[in-house]
From TrEMBL:
Keyword Nucleus: yes
An annotated GO cellular component: cytoplasm
Compartment(s) where it occurs, according to its Swiss-Prot or TrEMBL record: Nucleus
EC number(s) per entry: 3.1.11.2
InterPro entries cross-referenced by the UniProt entry: Ribonucl_H, RNaseH-like_sf, RNaseH_sf, TREX1/2
Lineage: Eukaryota, Metazoa, Chordata, Craniata, Vertebrata
Protein name: exodeoxyribonuclease III
Main location, first listed in the record: nucleus
Record-stated family: Belongs to the exonuclease superfamily. TREX family.
Entries under Pfam families matching the protein: RNase_T (PF00929)
Length: 227
């Protein structure tokens, strides 16, 4: 279901999100790290640049970044990619995905200017379903009216509209390299990925904001990754 033009274009805050986890979808993954960075619409419409004219991150950002004890083994591949292991999470006494974390997420979202749109790269396939699974295990949820946007879908949509195909695919790293001619910093670190996502979003902010009604869903439409 595509949301109405009025609802999608009324979002006042975009909360960019990334999860790191124990593995991929078929591994029944658990979250090991979550990062949410909130950016007000004003900062997306009024871009700032450095003295060389290069885009910079907005100055006004709210962040919630936490590591999480998954309570199950992290695959070797996931540990190699993210730098998170059961050992270092345990040594640093990280807590599980629990009611306290649910409260923090909801209060972080509630603190932002409403309505809010969650934004994640590959979000419809991975981040949103996994977060919904973790919330349901705590018998909790987010507001069903919360908007959600997947930037993989958005960048495909923008390219298709002008008859282009993304060279080297639509991974966050590939889009970042095409846009800025360099590698993103701290890939597969949840905060690093979120900041890279914000930068590629800013590079096409006007186009993306104009097409939100085509590329958003409500949180209530997101299905959990697994039961």
């Amino acid at each position: 279901m595509i949301v109405s033009d009025t609802m999608a274009t009324s979002a006042k805050t975009l909360v960019f999100m990334d999860l790191e986890a124990t593995g991929l979808n078929n591994d029944l993954p658990k979250i090991t790290e979550i990062c949410l960075v909130a950016v007000h619409l004003s900062s997306l419409e009024n871009l700032i640049t450095d003295e060389d004219g290069q885009l910079e991150l907005p100055r006004v950002l709210d962040k919630l970044c936490l590591c999480v004890d998954p309570g199950k083994p992290i695959t070797g591949k996931a540990s190699e990619i993210t730098g998170l292991s059961n050992t270092n999470l345990d040594k640093n006494e990280k807590q599980a995905f629990n009611p306290c974390l649910v409260h923090l997420i909801n209060e972080f979202l509630n603190r932002q200017a409403q309505p809010v749109c969650l934004v994640a790269h590959n979000g419809f396939y991975y981040d949103f379903p996994l977060l919904k699974t973790e919330l349901q295990k705590q018998e909790a949820s987010l507001s069903s009216a919360l908007l959600c946007m997947d930037t993989v879908q958005v960048f495909r949509f923008l390219d298709k509209r002008v008859g282009k195909v993304g060279e080297n695919g639509y991974s966050l790293e590939a889009i970042y390299r095409r846009t800025f001619k360099k590698d993103p910093i701290n890939s597969h670190n949840a905060e690093g990925d979120v900041l890279a996502l914000i930068m590629v979003f800013l590079s096409k902010a006007d186009q993306i904001l104009d097409t939100m009604s085509t590329n958003c869903k409500r949180w209530g439409e997101i299905c959990p990754m697994y039961g």
